[in-house]
Amino acid sequence: MELQRKRQIVRPTGPPDGGYGWFIVLSTFLVFGLTFGVIKSFGVFFVEIHHYFATTVTASSWITSIAVATLHFGAPIGSALSAYFSHRCVVIVGGLLSSIGMVAGSCAQDLIQLYITVGFLTGFGYALTWTPTVTMLGWYFEKRRPVANALASTGECILTFILTPSFQFLVDQFSWRGAMLILGALQLNLCLCGALLRPLDGEVPAKELAAKGKDLELETLSQTCTRKTSANRPGPKQNSELLKNKIIRYVDYTLIANGRFMVYSMFGVFAALGFFAPSLFLVPYARSKGVEEYQAASLMSISSALDLSGRLIFGWVANLRLVKTIHQLFVSVILLAVILLLCPLAATFTHLALFSASYGLVFGATVAIHITVLAEVVGVEKLGSALGFFMLIRSSGGLLGPPLAGIFIDEMNDYGVGFLMAGVALIVSALFLLLLHQMNKKGQDKRKDSAMENESRKVDI
Questions:
Q1: What is d(CA 63, CA 46) in angstroms, rounded to the nearest whole number?
Q2: Which of 150, 224, 336, 411 lies at a 20 to 30 A Cα distance from 277?
Q3: Shortest CA distance to 137 belongs to which of 98, 71, 82, 95?
């Protein structure tokens, strides 16, 4: 136990809810914009690549799907590497990989090369930037965590608002290859985001801790083994315990046995099926209805502007604690599903603009609090590992969402079918939130019963 206390990395403590934390908010703001904002704006490239290679919707949609899935699948790796080295170093490396992937993708000669460069390489770079940055944000804020998460996530909205028409302009001026090359240069700003991640007092990377504490560990281990065994080297139980502690320090695999966490992760899987398909297919859907290309691109800007409002307003509401965040999340997911199911009724630019505004507002309300709910499920001490595992499990939804929608679109020859699929997936995800609420309620009832039993025992004594 003495060895475990000396080797354990405790959650950092520092100036809460202010100070340098606002620079972490700025860094996370840019990371959201240069990762998920770029993914949401990729619909402009999707149309051009689809026509350039004369391929199916399903085949073209795999580019975004692989990037999203790799982002999610690589999240535990980003979490583990940031615990071993440092959050700053991992994010800087992730920014370099993201830039290299986009630059290489601008020279791709077929879809397979785009899958590898823009899909896998850039997606993995996003994984190394997003998870450590969001984890650091959770460490810097406690009372204002919902507001901090909401403010940081608005980077996705604001940069989507700016990037979508900008990408359309760049594509018209330089073709999709030139626009992707410029985007690769823009991705280098992720390295700047990493440079802003100053560790809190008390945060020691595991690599440095291991180097500094090697002699202390050997001495303590020898004392422990001398007391417990007659041998001068650690026994099998001690070796097993050391290995377990090292693994948990980087990736807390015990979360898999947490029923509430796994239920919330299943919510994430089905939510991912519905989250990413609309942003990819909204611009092509508008173009298929005869909407002019710049008007079609402006739909994503409208959605992003209302998305920004939704995150700020409902993040502030969550911070007031007027209702439970899980209740707020459930209502927003149901509303989002209804809006998506109504999308195929939109046939003009005015109707599509109304859909985009409604979708953006409710989507912002959903995204603003889903990380806050995760922190409530597992506790902030395990947020880093929980984010990694949550993104890993959710990766299946992000990978399959756009291609599944693409299959239906190819079969029905109608982009509206993709929105129907996304709406149904969100309704299923809401059912898992109901299950999580029931599990929370049962846990609270058990704690109340145990507390009453303890009180009655004290009275009897």
A1: 9
A2: 150
A3: 82
Q: Are the C-beta atoms of 391 and 77 separated by less than 8 Å?
A: no
d(CA 247, CA 217) in angstroms, rounded, equals: 17
Report the alpha-carbon distance of residue 126 to residue 71 in Å, rounded.
6
How far is Cα 136 from Cα 139, in angstroms, rounded to an integer?
5
Q: How far apart are CA 173 and CA 180, in angstroms?
A: 12
Say which residue the tokens 């899980």 belong to.
326
**322 Cβ partners below 8 Å, 6+ apart?**
none
How many helices and strands (H and E) does the chain possess? 20, 0
Question: What pTM was computed for the model?
Answer: 0.68
In angstroms, rounded to a whole number, what is the distance separating the alpha carbons of residues 56 and 334?
A: 31
Exposure string for 246-270, b = 16+ CB within 10 A, e = fewer: eeebbbbeebeebeebbbbbbbbbb
DSSP state letters, 189-217: HHHHHHHT-PPPTT---HHHHHHHTHHHH
The amino acid sitting at 185 is: A
Q: pLDDT at position 212, please?
A: 46
| Residue 96 to residue 269: CA distance in whole angstroms | 29
Does residue 264 contact residue 390 with C-beta atoms inside 8 Å? yes
User: Cα torsion for 409, 412, 417, 421, to the nearest 10°?
Assistant: -80
> DSSP state, 321?
T
Rounded to the nearest 10 degrees, what angle do helices 145-186 and 293-320 cross at? 150
Cα angle value 296/299/303 (rounded, 5°):
160
Q: Are 142 and 380 in contact (CB under 8 A)?
A: yes
SS3 category, 271:
helix
* DSSP state letter for 202: T
The DSSP H or E segment spanning 119 is none
Q: Which residue has the tokens 């190819």?
A: 410
Contacts of 204 (CB under 8 A, 6+ apart): 9
**What integer pLDDT is reported at residue 340 of this predicted model?**
93
For tokens 């993040």, name the residue.
Answer: 315
pLDDT along the chain (461 residues), means of 10: 42 52 87 90 85 86 87 83 87 95 94 94 93 84 75 84 89 93 94 86 50 44 44 52 54 74 90 80 87 86 87 81 86 93 90 92 86 81 75 79 84 88 93 90 68 62 58
pLDDT of residue 134: 85
Tokens of 76: 């535990």
CA 217 vs CA 5, 207, 211, 439: distances in Å: 11, 14, 10, 41
